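notes to self, project folder thing:

trying the whole complex as one job this time. last attempt i did each chain seperately and stitching them together was a nightmare. two parts in total, labels are on each line so i dont mix them up again. if this works i'll redo the older ones the same way
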Amino acid sequence: MNFSEVFKLSSLLCKFSPDGKYLASCVQYRLIIRDVNNLQILQLYTCLDQIQYTEWSSDSLFILCAMYKRGIVQVWSLEQPDWHCKIDEGSAGLVASCWSPDGRHILNTTEFYLRITVWSLCTKSVSYIKYPKACQHGIAFTKDGRYMALAERRDCKDYISLFVCSDWQLLRHFDTETQDLSGIEWAPNGCVLAVWDTCLEYKILLYSLDGRLLSTYSAYEWSLGIKSVAWSPSSQFLAIGSYDEKVRILNHVTWKKITEFEHPVTIANPKIIVYKETEKSARVETESLAFPPARAQASSLFSTKSKYDISQVPVTLQSVKPVTDRANPRIGIGMLAFSPDNCFLATKNDNIPNAIWIWDVQKLKLFVVLEQLYAIQLFQWDPRQPRLAICTGNSKVYLWSPAGCVSVQVPMEDDLQVLSLCWHSSGDSMALLSKDNFCMCYLEREEVK
Amino acid sequence: MGDWKTITVPALSSASKISYQNTSEKKMSPSSLNMQQVLRSPLPLYKSMHSFSSAFCTEENVEQSISYLNRELTTLGFPSLYSECKDKELNVVSVLNCLNELLVLQRKNLRAQEEVEIQHLKLGSDMDHLQNCYAKVKEQLEASRREIVGLQERDRQQQCKNRNLHQLLKNEKDEVQKLQNIIASRATQYNHDMKRKEREYNKLKERLHQLVMNKKDKKIAMDVLNYVGRVDGKRGAWRTGKTEARNEEEMYKVLLGGYEQRQKQLLVENAELKKVLQQMKREMISLLPPQKQKPKERAEDGIGPVLSDMEEDAVELNKENMWELSCETVREQLTNSIRKQWRMLKNHVEKLDNQVSRAHSGALNGSDVISREDHELETEKLELEIQQCKEMIKTQQQLLQQQLMSPCDDDDTSVLLQDCYLLEERERLQEEWKLFREQKKNFERERRSFTEAAIRLGLERKAFEEDRGTWLKQQFLSMTSDHKNSEHVKTQSAYSGSSDPDNQLMNFRSRQKKPHCLPSVPPSEEFCQTIQHIPHNSNSSVVLNKTTEDSKPKQWKGLNKAETEKCIKTSVTEDF
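result (full assembly):
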């Protein structure tokens, strides 16, 4: 495993282009485009203000930089460095910006969700979509980029509008049986739309592309409901993580529950492997220490090594007692993701912040539990193989694959506190992001095998 | 008299005191009590005696006291102290007797008293024991009563608690209900408020929208160097009804594509499953014994043959293009046949399982559960049965053989059996006949010997008569010289006497027995002996007669005489 040198970064804005050739990173108001292979700067764009959001177009030809504070979006072209485009939302303000799947339209959401403006880079035309719903997952594009589903709110009712992305024509418009819709997500095959209600009510609805309600599922009443939703890459399963610390898996034929994954604090089943990260303090040989220690020595002294031990079951995981009198309690399944080959599901229970559960989807059983020393910040599957990268906000990156798991120290002089990471589409490398820096991490192929 | 009474009372009272003491002093051990008794009892007696001597009789009132005593004694049933003949005179003898009797009585009474006291002690101790027991039992009773009371109290408390808990539960339930109601009402209120606020918010938004958007905001603009081409290189089409229709079409195409893909997947899955089913079926058929399969099928459902026909058809179809035909009938056939075979297989496996389990349990029982005795008994019984069966088999075999051996044509076994029995009987009879004949021969021979013996006897008798004649003659000649022949005559008369009925009877009997008993008659030598006896006997009888007159025991004489007479008689009768 190799690491690149450290580059500057701000706001954790570092993205690989979809074709995998370029790497965009933002430092304050500058956008830097590098070649992924040699990390040489190809382009350097200067924006009008500090960049708050950046996104590649699907064809990797353009990149947008959003400056929400000023209500401005700037678009840059890789092919034509002189080309420029600036979209100003003016007094309407800007809260979100994104590319349409074709890479020629930009969707800007104005402040207070007054409307969504669709700016075209090809024509002068501007489209407006009124009444978008103020929610996190209010816009969803199908994977093939043909359709967009948009959550709307009119007259205190939730609606879904389906648009054809090619000409922004409204295809379907239907109301949903939700109290307060909080998210929508297309199945990867683009035929089924999952719509889930606010956390006050456990309710998930499945709509066909033509607006028919396929099924409704509700696991329980009264207590807080759905926290996270994920489709399996094959569209076969829909995993629903909820505040009751369970993941329920629905099948795509009957849309009924297949199984329920619990996340208990104690793991007693001897078939489950529990990897526990243990810290091994550096061999401190007091007699060999010089009084004014050399800098390198000092850094090595303070950086501790860690490794995974296989714990003997039963194991009791570290858990946090959630504060119940505050909103959005830290409890329940906050993160869940299927591996790209559909074989594994990784979940995180927010009140056991140090552990990741990895479930075998074929057997529908718990497979591995990783217990880290620190709270998990993010985990992401390798896009090519069942390999999970985990960061916990320290200077290490952790990798799990069915063969085992490793903990890798990022060998930097100044500690690189990895807060986030993103995989390159080839799965050969990833970028490790800290608050102010990032570095590339290259994985050797043979190591994976 | 008055004195006596006054004196005796304390004695009694003292005695009673003792008894009271006895009863009152429960805690004393019987032995100590006894000791006390022993120590105390003589004291009052002695005292009373002393008082008697001092107070009762004095020189002056001797007469009076005597008379008093006399009266008292007579009333008590003793003889009078005075002699009867002379008035007012003390009969010393009777006095002494009385005294003696009184003393005896006194002793008896003392003994009785002692016994009574002992018994009393015993009873007292028994009483103590019983009282102890009673006390203990009473304590127990008290304790158990207390316990009961405690338990009742506890029970009451528990019930109370239970009631409280029930009440609490009810309250809780009520509370839950109330809370649910509250939640519901709050939710509705919240929703209502939310809606109100949202409306307001919407109004505001609308207003804002108007304010912000309608005013020609120069700022809202896109500053672009030049427009870029579309990804597909085409120009954007005009939005018309046509495009709408096309969009619809495309959407449905996408949907259709999705469904088609799914159907394909399902088809593939179905085909796989069918293949598996088919394979399973084949394997099952090969696994199940074919001769078992058919009758079961027919037994299980009446439409067995039809189904099997259909099955054959299905198999044929299968050979051709099974996978193309996913229609209902084929599916039904397949599932039906699979189900049937599965049932059979299941039965088979269950049977096997049962066998295995039975064998297992049997082995277990043999080692553990069934006792050896039972086992042995069972084996014995079985052995007996085997024996019986073997016997039966043997007889049957015999019968069969007989049947085979017998030339007779009729197969009727009863007749055969009867014949058998008859034959057997005949044989037996023949044997008996033979025996009888032999016996008869023996008898003949004996008779012949008897007749010979009789002839010989007759000859001998004749000779004997002659001898007797000569002997009598000689006797007579010798007797003529003697004067005392009266006795001889007597004896002679006794010899020849036929007046005795007993003798006659004997004679008669002997005569009757004669033809039979002849062989037992002693031969001539014995006969001779008896003859010789007679004179001896007569001599002895003479001697005896003489002695009877001398000696005292008469019975002896008579008995002897009678015996001798009998002997003689018998000898005589034997002569005939």
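what i see at first glance: Residues 260 and 266 of chain B are 10 Å apart (CA to CA).
need to look closer tmrw
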